[in-house]
Amino acid sequence: MQMSESLSTNSNASSVRVSSPQPQSQQSLRRLSLCSQIATHSSPIVFPEKRTKKLKASSRRSEVGVNDVQAEKSKGDEHRIDIGGGDEKSDLLAGVVYSGKLILDKRNNTTTASSNSSDVDQKSSTGVPNQEAVDAKLTSKALVWGSQVLPLDDVISVTYNVGLRHFTVHSYPLKKSSYGLSCFIKPRRSRKDFRFVASSAEVAVQWVGAFADQQCFVNCLPHPLVSSKKQSSSELFPMDIPHELLFKCKNPPKMLVILNPRSGRGRSSKVFDGIVEPIFKLAGFKLEVVKTTSAGHAKKLASTVDISTCPDGIICVGGDGIINEVLNGLLSRDNQKEGISIPIGIIPAGSDNSLVWTVLGVRDPVSAAISIVKVNFLLLLSSWCLLRKRDNGWRL
Ligand SMILES: Nc1ncnc2c1ncn2[C@@H]1O[C@H](COP(=O)(O)OP(=O)(O)OP(=O)(O)O)[C@@H](O)[C@H]1O
């Protein structure tokens, strides 16, 4: 099978991580743009209607994160990437950062919410599926293969086992039923893993590196045979992360989680442990979780926590009350400047959650977790204060 890959640099790659300090004005602008990203993150991506009758009929079904118009197309069209179809779709398909041939291994794709990245790849066989390679490309906004489009906004991370030809893309696309009147219908996302096979291990590394360039977290794991005690052979399969991946992979964010176990009539711990923490783990986050023991505990924590232990932020899990406590705790710190500079994430797990929905436009815990993973934090108290003064939306 003839493979051809070409690597080009992406000048438009957005950098939304919080690690490097920037001048204050730029930081404020970035935070504002992040807030607006968050507000729109849970909105559905709607591809415009196709011109032909056949595709018009399927346009309702194409309003999904993973765009599957395959069923309506003839088999001859199967491996063609359709770039036409309107501005929004063209927007997703523009700005190619890497392209080549990939095989989607349908045998190993999972939708299990609880399985973690290493489970997925340990379970996978290393054999190559008997399927045809299709044209694939990674743009700054989406992964496209055949006629399928997976927006990068829905991608949490990529798992790669050193030395193998395959890699797995972990995503949380919106369920079809979540579209429509997004103001009234609770958006629902569920996990979907796509296992791709490249022409060689070197090409797989390049694909994974291209994902890393687009701010996707990369779980780099040893070769399955090396990690297996029985068949350990570090000489045959070096465990070292390929050099080209090493410098592209980012340090995972380190955050403090303050969880009110009484929120949401006692359901918040279940929400966090069952559906939220797996997303953060998949994205490589290092979390320290503290469950509050009484009213006022969250405020005390926020007012005294050593910020160097959670340099990337504090995530509040609960309802409006716990957010209120954390904000007040940060404002009452001896070093208030430090307090208002710490990024704050909110996972709605209370009984009402009106604050997070009103201010950030996110109301389900999965979408909120994905927003934090994709843009790294939700709001900054300093920006919040600034914005509240204006009283007309998220502007300076
Ligand atoms: N361990 C705890 N035991 C009892 N109360 C607590 C505990 N931890 C926090 N609290 C208090 O519980 C109050 C309500 O919590 P929170 O707002 O998070 O949940 P909720 O009432 O379910 O959500 P919402 O405010 O959205 O309706 C908070 O103001 C906080 O002071």
Automatic annotation (TrEMBL):
<feature type="compositionally biased region" description="Low complexity">
    <location>
        <begin position="109"/>
        <end position="125"/>
    </location>
</feature>
<dbReference type="GO" id="GO:0016020">
    <property type="term" value="C:membrane"/>
</dbReference>
<feature type="domain" description="DAGKc">
    <location>
        <begin position="250"/>
        <end position="389"/>
    </location>
</feature>
<dbReference type="Pfam" id="PF00781">
    <property type="entry name" value="DAGK_cat"/>
</dbReference>
<dbReference type="InterPro" id="IPR050187">
    <property type="entry name" value="Lipid_Phosphate_FormReg"/>
</dbReference>
<protein>
    <recommendedName>
        <fullName>DAGKc domain-containing protein</fullName>
    </recommendedName>
</protein>
<dbReference type="GO" id="GO:0001729">
    <property type="term" value="F:ceramide kinase activity"/>
</dbReference>
<feature type="region of interest" description="Disordered">
    <location>
        <begin position="1"/>
        <end position="31"/>
    </location>
</feature>
<feature type="compositionally biased region" description="Basic and acidic residues">
    <location>
        <begin position="70"/>
        <end position="85"/>
    </location>
</feature>
<feature type="region of interest" description="Disordered">
    <location>
        <begin position="45"/>
        <end position="85"/>
    </location>
</feature>
<feature type="region of interest" description="Disordered">
    <location>
        <begin position="109"/>
        <end position="132"/>
    </location>
</feature>
<dbReference type="GO" id="GO:0006672">
    <property type="term" value="P:ceramide metabolic process"/>
</dbReference>
<dbReference type="InterPro" id="IPR016064">
    <property type="entry name" value="NAD/diacylglycerol_kinase_sf"/>
</dbReference>
<dbReference type="InterPro" id="IPR001206">
    <property type="entry name" value="Diacylglycerol_kinase_cat_dom"/>
</dbReference>
<dbReference type="InterPro" id="IPR017438">
    <property type="entry name" value="ATP-NAD_kinase_N"/>
</dbReference>
